[in-house]
Amino acid sequence: MHRPLVITEDRDLLDDLVRIAAAAGAQLDVAHVPAHARPFWNLAPLVVVGGDLADALAATAPPPRDRVLLVAREADDPESWRRCVAVGAQAVVTLPAEERRLVDEFADAMEPEPRAGTVLCVIGGRGGVGASVLASCLALRASHDRLRTLLVDADPLSGGIDALLGHEDAAGARWGDLVAREGRVGSAALQAALPAFGDLSVLSFHRGEVHPTPAQAMRSVLEAGHRGFDVVVVDLPRHLDPAAAEALGRASSTFLVTAADVRGVLAATQVLAEARRHTSDVRAVIRPGVLDDDVVARSLGIPAAGHLPDQPRLTATLNRGELPRLGPRTVLGALCTILLRDALPAG
User: Whole-model pTM?
Assistant: First the structure.
């Protein structure tokens, strides 16, 4: 993998840039004269030009490219903007004021090719309808299809979605570990930190004292998931906190699991009203009951995405720490296949 390129002869500036790059987990290629930068110019994922060599670099007429930054020490210096245009840079970054931005730029440069993962949310219309089970099965089905999948537990009171999967003792980071660190989360670092089972990575909560997840932490995780995964499935609480609202706002589709009875529909209507404040694409997944599926869908005013039949052996399977069979010929596997096919981009 190619490294970011720094072009400067200023030793103090170079020391700062090496330190900032290290904070992002990046190593640098360095050119002390513009001619030495030529072999790296088109290959580097990011080029950072010191103001001291900007005019000399512009004189070599480097070919246009994306992701070139000019680093300056003084804000709003007209000479910096002139040099920025001369070298074909997209922006001027002022140090030390914009050091955090430069850390993020270096971290982005070290990311693998982004995957543009699709975020799907699952929420229960009332307690006990199986929303967490559906979220887990969707994630498992996607990973079985060789899609790199991230399953995110957004309900701190759920007992941990890793326990539902029978992997509560798996080594790896939980929400508390991520919230403790500030700033951006890299997709590669997130994958390396989380418990993983084949193509499925799982982010759950620690057992014990409950701490709410800040919206910024959810935002960072979902941005990393968008860059590094094909599918991100978020298991939401029914009472939406800021983190859950953040996830809903980023979801391409949300599945509302609804019981087909009067109380189930009334409860789901209230959950739906809250969800619609943050997202527009909500689809019903209907559990069996006394009402027909089309009656439930019409009552809610949203399309029915699928029917989730009772699975008498599912609870016993999960309690044994085993995962359900999700082959395309099983009822649950077929439902997940349909939901993913309809929610994910074609191809």
Answer: 0.75
